[in-house]
Amino acid sequence: MDVRLDKFFRKNRSIILAYDHGMEHGPVDFNQKNIDPAYIMEIAEKGRFNGIALQHGIAEHYYDSTRVPLIVKLNGKTNLADVEPYSSQLCSVQRALKLGADAVGYTLYVGSNYESTMFEEFSNIVENAHNVGVPVIAWVYPRGASVKDPMSTDTLAYAARVGLELGADAIKIKYNNDFEGFKWVIKAAGKSHVYVAGGSKQDDYTFLKNTYEVLEAGACGLAVGRNIWKREDPYTITKALRKVVFDKKTPEEALQ
Ligand code: FBP
């Protein structure tokens, strides 16, 4: 395992809580409880997550954990503008470190008309971060008018490979329910550890089954948001998730 990511791993696996949706989707994902970042910090602590991913503003005002390692997302965008996807850098590696970051994150829209700008920003981030021993996680999402089939196995494998080629220590990618194909996606990521996004809220069984599959295919874990904090009871699903991820239980066993 890459030594610099050790902090985020337990038994060679990892579950990161993602909470950058306020920027990416707006409060449409939130209710009265989970709109409060302090509630999410509590879930991360009590649920014993291996990391939490936040935008710098949320990290500055709410992150004060000594137990849950912090990933500061360095770029972001809203979904309000009807343009080719471009997520600009909003925070430097140095600022993230001042906020207590143990790693930094960046979303790459692979295939966008603006990919060259994002690749350049990302490459500078990798250089700055690696110079001071900080790991970099790339959210690699194929997106843009010219990306015909963003969820095809070939396109996902291409995006995963881009993450590796640009120096990401870990990538975060979506799962397309093609179990055999996903092994190829993971192979394409090489030494970059592969986290899978949770996606929109699913029923318990489907969520755990997808998790089980991606781990079997070779992913290191999940970087998950809505499937945890959108649930009325985030702790019961977290407990079951931990059984699948760390104890290698099947979804059926984990739900018992
Ligand atoms: P979820 O587990 O809720 O899907 O979160 C993963 C994530 O990558 C977030 O970090 C990010 O805000 C969001 O998905 C991006 O979603 P979209 O695909 O709509 O851009």
Layout of secondary structure:
Blueprint: E1 14-18, H1 21-24, H2 37-46, E2 51-55, H3 56-62, E3 70-73, E4 75-76, E5 88-89, H4 93-98, E6 103-110, H5 115-131, E7 136-142, H6 153-165, E8 170-173, H7 179-188, E9 193-197, H8 204-217, E10 221-224, H9 226-229, H10 234-246, H11 251-255
Parallel strand pairs: 1-2, 1-10, 2-3, 3-6, 6-7, 7-8, 8-9, 9-10
Antiparallel strand pairs: 4-5
Helix pairs in contact: 6-7, 8-10
The structure holds 1,6-di-O-phosphono-beta-D-fructofuranose (FBP).
Task: Kindly describe this structure.
This protein is α/β, with parallel strands linked by helices and 256 residues long. The protein contains eleven helices and ten strands. The protein has helices spanning 21-24, 37-46, 56-62, 93-98, 115-131, 153-165, 179-188, 204-217, 226-229, 234-246, 251-255, and strands at residues 14-18, 51-55, 70-73, 75-76, 88-89, 103-110, 136-142, 170-173, 193-197, 221-224. The strands form two sheets. Strands 1-2-3-6-7-8-9-10 form an eight-stranded parallel barrel, surrounded by five helices. It has a two-stranded antiparallel ribbon with strand order 4-5. The two termini are 32 Å apart. The model has no long low-confidence stretch (mean pLDDT 97). It binds 1,6-di-O-phosphono-beta-D-fructofuranose. Residues 18, 20-21, 24, 139, 197-199, 224-227 line the site of 1,6-di-O-phosphono-beta-D-fructofuranose.
